[in-house]
Design brief:
The chain is an alpha/beta fold. It contains 20 helices and 18 strands. The chain folds into three domains: 124 residues, Chitobiase/beta-hexosaminidase domain 2-like (Chitobiase, domain 2, 2-Layer Sandwich), CATH 3.30.379; 306 residues, Glycosidases (TIM Barrel, Alpha-Beta Barrel); 136 residues, no CATH class. The chain is globular.
Amino acid sequence: MLKIKMMRFDHVIVFAAEELKKYLRMMMPQTADIEILFDPEAKDGFRLGLLEDFGLKNEAEDPVLDDVVHIDTTEEGGILAGSNTRSILYAVYRFLRLNGCRWLYPGVDGEHIPTKDIAPTQYHKMADHRFRGHCNEGAESQDCMLETIDFYAKQEINVYMIEFDNPYTYYNSYYSHKHNDKNRPPEPVTYEQVMQWKRQCEAEIAKRGLQFHDMGHGWTAEPYGISSTDGWAKSTVELTDLQRSYLAQLDGVRDTYRGVPLNTNLCMSNPTVRSIMADSIVEYAEKHANVTYLHVWLADGHHNHCECEECKKALPSDYYLMIMNELDEKLTAKGLKTRIVFIAYYDTLFPAEQIRIANPQRFSLLYAPITRKYTESVDENTVTPEAPAYKRNQWELPRGAEENLAFLKAWQKDWKGPCFSYEYHFWKHQYKDPTGLYIARRIYEDIRGLKYMGLDGFVEDGSQRSFFPNGFAIYVYAETLLNREITWEELVEDYFSHVYGEDWKHVSVCLKKISHAFDFAFISGEATTDASISNFHDPARAESFESVREYAQQLRDMLKDHMKMPTRPQTVSWRLLGYAADFFEGFAGFMKERCVGHESLAYKMAYDFLYEFGKNEIAIERYYDQHNAGKSLIATVKKPTKIVLQPGTEF
């Protein structure tokens, strides 16, 4: 009888042992039960422990953050080890993967578990990047949150971030069924319910030993008694004179920026304002010892920093680092070792000129190029210009790869501590590439460019439902962050052959044609032939969009012969292609009218398409986010002044 022996007792190792037992029994359903034991002196069976438990060298620079996986097994057992308890879990998943298992989508329908005997396996790998993460975004249900935490751990994604003290705004987008409430009546949830769900997510993150990154925006509101729980919605709450005195002065007025607390910056030259924020962060850190990294970001807005005479004396980043240094002093006084992330985002892309981080050991820099083009990546040939000088509330948003890199390099002249990136491939950009192939390739190139940028990984801001028409882009993301030398061809063949079976090449070819027909650059508004008309003008493209109808029909024709497949993930994947064919055709239909200038017709067609396609959401919601897709797609059409839309929901 096979035995699993834990070299030390830890809740993550216990979970790893249970996962190994579960999947071994699934692979070998006729085998006897598998016993799990605690045995620090074990010499046989599957032995789960830290590298040092087996006298193995741990090359991790920081064993808490860096993942090293070591596997040396026979048919009877062997060593499954890691640099930390999370990496032991990864050793289990990698061992199973090397024996033919795949996790292709979240949930049991995405599990490819072959029926076979296990084979001898040797593997040793330190992940090429320290930060391999995902942050919640879009419209999220609790089912999807819990499934993606489990799924990402199986992909060896080691960071899970939950934005906001209370992520109500993301949950509310799902449960109110924004952009689809005519098809799905709203199911309101409370702030209290969402807070309970966040705590449940935290427990699942901890069970797997993942890095838990917390918060982000909100620190420019909550410490001052101003609620930002409703996200980007305007507040109707009247502020006191004292609260207004803390806020940035714009055009001589101190108030919330366009009525949205979350987007409002502060009068950071005011020492009281800085101390209130630092004290609030310390209080949060005391109550949340489970947080690996606490993210301290400013407002989610730009060109709205304080214009008072004192604030003009230094850059926003200088005042920001003053807060970081005060925070560090107060955390140190409390004996708290909380790691802090500060961010280069919008106005703080411009690095501090007067102030430096006093205790770099506590901090990591997060580079968040939200305005970048997703038609370019950095590589060894990228030439970095000098970053422009800061002009308060008058600077230009950087777009190109070189422009954005200039800001990062400017920060790195003085900041020598850890840096990683906050990226947006799985936010609105994935919906500008309906096949997922282009965005997957962009992710691949972006990851391969990280070493030229001096960055140690990504945390992706994106929907938990980024698996439509398949999960290839997520797969590319996870595997390439682990091993930047993996080839594109290896990634394509491995994923597509598992999700579509022996005819995977036919699917790949058809999806490539559809991807080219849409053209990511054009859908992103970067390839218009006449910007004076619109960002989406090019009559010659009408024929290309028309060709999508033929390709969509080819997918439907293939589907007829693939309704019953050998594995459950393949059955799911082919049926998703049926829905995708309708999506491709509907999207191309209104873009065909858009590119020739038929704005009213394009808007009506887009609106009606999203309403009709939204009827499918409940069937495919594990994979597809109607809320995020709707916001992104409707941005490609211009709403006319007068138009009657029947039926549906306003976007």
